[in-house]
Write a structure and sequence with these properties.
alpha+beta; 2 domains; three-stranded antiparallel sheet; 3 helices; 5 strands
């Protein structure tokens, strides 16, 4: 396998938390990888700074990912509910939810219009609804492409 450059970055408060491998040739495909694992996959020393040549291409340059399977989606949803509940069930304002959905999710190539889900994470996204059934409404959740 050659060194890849196909990871999506997950950040929290501006700090990289983990990466998601998008290289279909990798045994880690569609799984979380640590910064050290990603560096090794790219043929760099763990902890070495990324240069523009080794940074990921924009997510829109890639084709939409295959929607995660049912088990992965259920586990992801359970994790999101636990995080959301532990944080006190904070919700985004309705106007912010509408703005995010209309301006970011709906035009995104990862959005599956038929099932109203994001193909990146498999979560339901909409411009309205209860937080328990709408990822955008949960203030603790974020886009897998880090667009919101």
């Amino acid at each position: 396998m050659t060194a890849c450059n196909q990871c999506l970055t997950a950040t929290r408060d501006g700090k990289i938390v983990y990466y998601i491998c998008r290289n279909p040739e990798s045994r880690r495909f569609n799984k979380r990888v640590s910064p050290a694992t990603r560096a090794a996959c790219q043929g760099r020393r763990p902890g070495a700074q990324e240069t523009p040549a080794t940074q990921s291409a924009p997510a829109d340059a890639e084709p939409p990912p295959q929607t995660p399977g049912l088990v992965r989606r259920v586990l992801s949803y359970a994790e999101a509910l636990i995080q959301w509940t532990a944080a006190g069930k904070p919700e985004r304002a309705d106007d912010e939810v509408v703005r995010i959905f209309q301006q970011i999710c709906k035009p995104c190539r990862w959005f599956d219009r038929r099932r109203t889900i994001c193909r990146g994470c498999g979560c339901r996204v909409a411009d309205s609804g209860f937080a328990i059934t709408n990822k955008i409404k949960m203030a603790t959740e974020h886009c897998p492409k880090n667009l919101w």
